[in-house]
Specification:
The termini are far apart. The protein contains one helix and eight strands; from the N terminus they run αββββββββ. The chain folds into two domains: 36 residues; 100 residues, Immunoglobulins (Immunoglobulin-like, Sandwich), CATH 2.60.40. It is 24% helix and 54% strand. Keywords: Signal.
Length: 142
Amino acid sequence: MRKRAAALVLSLLILCVAPMQAFALGTNQVTNSEIGPLWVSITEFTNSFGISGGGLAQFDTSLYARSNINKVVINASIQQYINGSWQTIKSWTSTSYSNSGYLNQKWYVVSGYNYRLVSNGAVYQNDTLVEQTSYTGSSYWY
């Protein structure tokens, strides 16, 4: 009798825990697929931005793509929030004739405003656009 009761309790416990575990796994899978970009040719697009105490804004942007890509173009802009909207104050472009590209620049900004980095990356195969991506960073007060 004791074994039968223990088996019944164990069976009920498994029936209660299994659906919760399946739901948690399903939720994680949906969340993970929604977070990551759905690139085909681009394998990595990274951006960093900061402003020093002296007002020197600096950013690094890099883009890596699959080996069939032979041209990478990166455009990056520092924007300032002024009069209720974001205005581009300085822009740069980098073109690389390989499957990776990099852009690093510095620019002095004036105090009393929010600033952010906006960048775009595009990859080409034989001068035909294959894929593009963009990034808009968090704002920083200086």
